[in-house]
Automatic annotation (TrEMBL):
Signal peptide interval: none
Start and end residues of each N-acetyltransferase domain: 1-111
UniProt keyword annotations, A-Z: Acyltransferase, Transferase
Native source species: Mycolicibacterium arenosum
SUPFAM superfamilies xref list: Acyl-CoA N-acyltransferases (Nat) (SSF55729)
UniProt-recorded name of the protein: GNAT family N-acetyltransferase
Length: 111
């Protein structure tokens, strides 16, 4: 693993219910946007809006910092993600092989 996750960890959110982890958001604040590095929800908790809640937190953070966008990407094979992100207001801006993975890149204007 070559990635430096220090900034993502510093800007992470963990959604818990008692002692159970429901979901996690890792986001990196860049100069002109918030990059959602990872958003994950426990399999037993999917479909309840927790992923949407975590993404909304990243979007809110971008607005609070005076930034106008959130950005993220997903693997092209993740068909559920490819359908979900546009429903949440994300716009597909690119598809390419990046670091050996077929990725789809999305941007959301949060103004």
């Amino acid at each position: 693993m070559d990635a430096d996750y220090a900034d993502a960890v510093a800007h992470s959110r963990v959604l818990v219910d008692g002692d159970r982890i429901i979901g996690v958001l890792a986001a990196v604040v860049e100069s002109d946007h918030v990059f959602v590095d990872s958003v994950a929800v426990a399999p037993a908790e999917t479909g309840r809006g927790y992923g949407r809640m975590l993404l909304a937190d990243a979007e809110s953070r971008a607005r609070e910092l005076g930034l106008t966008q959130t950005r993220l990407y997903t693997n092209a094979a993740m068909t559920e993600n490819l359908a979900m992100y546009p429903r949440l207001g994300y716009v597909e801006v690119d598809r390419r092989t990046d670091e050996g993975f077929d990725r789809v890149f999305f941007v959301k204007d949060v103004r």
